[in-house]
TrEMBL record:
This is Translation initiation factor eIF2B subunit gamma. Residues 484-509 have a biased composition (Acidic residues). Pfam families: LbH_EIF2B. GO terms for cellular component: cytosol; eukaryotic translation initiation factor 2B complex. It comes from Vanderwaltozyma polyspora (strain ATCC 22028 / DSM 70294 / BCRC 21397 / CBS 2163 / NBRC 10782 / NRRL Y-8283 / UCD 57-17) (Kluyveromyces polysporus). It is found in: Cytoplasm, Cytosol. The keyword Protein biosynthesis applies. Residues 469-509 are annotated as: Disordered. One of its GO terms (molecular function) is guanyl-nucleotide exchange factor activity. One of its GO terms (biological process) is regulation of translational initiation. SUPFAM superfamilies: Nucleotide-diphospho-sugar transferases. Keywords: Cytoplasm, Initiation factor, Protein biosynthesis.
Amino acid sequence: MKLQAFIFCGSGGKLSPFVQPQVHHGVSNGLPKALLPVGNRAMLEYVLDWCDQAAFTEIHVVAWHEEIEQIQEGLLPYLNLRSEQFELVAKSLTQSYHSHHLHKPKQINFIASKCNTTGESFQKELLEKITGDFVLLPCDFITDIPPQILIDQFSNRDDDNVAMTVYYKNSMENIDKKQMGKQFFTIYSENSETDKQPVLLDVYAKDDVAKTKYLQIRNHMLWRYPNATVSTKLLNSFIYFCTYDLVKLLSVDDSNDKNNNGDSTNEDETNDVQPIDLTEIKPRYFKKDSKLIKDQINCKRSLAKIFRDLGRRSWQHSEERETLGIFILPDVSSFIRGNNLNSYMESNRYILKIKAQSATKHGQTNASSSAIGVDSVVGQRCTIMEKSNIKMSAIGQGCKIGKRCRIAGSILLPNVEVEDDVILENVIIGPHAKIEKKSKLTNCYVEGYYVVEQRSTLKGETLTKTHIDSEDEVSSNVAYSSSGEEDSEEYSDNYYDDEEFEDDGLFER
């Protein structure tokens, strides 16, 4: 099945202070979200590896125009290695009868976005690039689910499905629900009594339900879907498999609507056989083409809100509309998004556990395991002095670890300096930060370039530098980060952000 892939690289507001929403005095205190390391690899690389398994026809990376060059430059080593690996495999298969299975990796295109929301970017900058069915992806997920499972599920969708959303349940025990961000009531219909696939109906923020003290569900939805299910455990994966009909539905151009063309004739007014335009035939196999009714949908918001509105569209009108399918990942699989600090830490631990299991399975042992465990990764050009112990941690390149240090369950971004007799437990240290002698940090986050004074004992603290910007800098930052309904993330990839959802209960009858 031919699919185009679009990967959205959000700003990562919930990963502060390790992302770079702004630059102070020419020095960046963090990295673009897509380049944040997970197991010493940029999180975007895991998504690109997943896309390579799916053999998508095109792969596009969409990011804020001020970060796209840095993301492209940061991926150069990965892209070069990707090409070298293909050449090595190609050489080994030249004498084989199975060389027809060899597919050259698809070129990765980078799209600079100047829009403030993912929905607006999708409508104004991406729709014109879409030629068939496509998939929208985040830049921060890690999973052991092969993409073909999702593609097969999408291929078996109902005729009236305009898209398929993917949801998952949190399988990581160490992720605190309170630190996962906003939680939601997800309403969907399993359609167990019919042959129809499950469909997404509505989503409500838990905070809004808590304010009103009850969950208000519209009667019209219950009339059409009387056996709807309400779940508080489902999480949005931000993975959307979409048909080409969605492009027609959200396009601001009415050229596809024949009724808007004054020269077009109604089929009832003429008996002439219209010629078939072969360019309009899409690989939909045996799917029936339903009559598409264009409704006005506000796209100046996050994609999650657009697909929520598409879910409501299936039942809130008197005439039937296309439905929005929902696929819930099975519990036996692993899926995690590093879209906040807590889950980002768990993403690293998940990768490190896989590394440790792989090393144990192949009988690999580290001669200096007392210093660096098999469940840890250490970047290039690192200096680790004697009697230091590192367990279940990711140490970035260029870091300096002093004598008698103990680091457990932590992430050190590049060029961190840790002096002698320092204890770090479950901490994230930003790039170029410095931890002075005999300090002990537990469950802390330290911003890049920050200096922790010697003999500091801190627990559960977030250490950031104080910046005083000029008025011009402040005004530009505010304009960049506050646009319409998006609050903390100008290029958000999360549901609702901090917006209050107002349900007026009105719908077309």
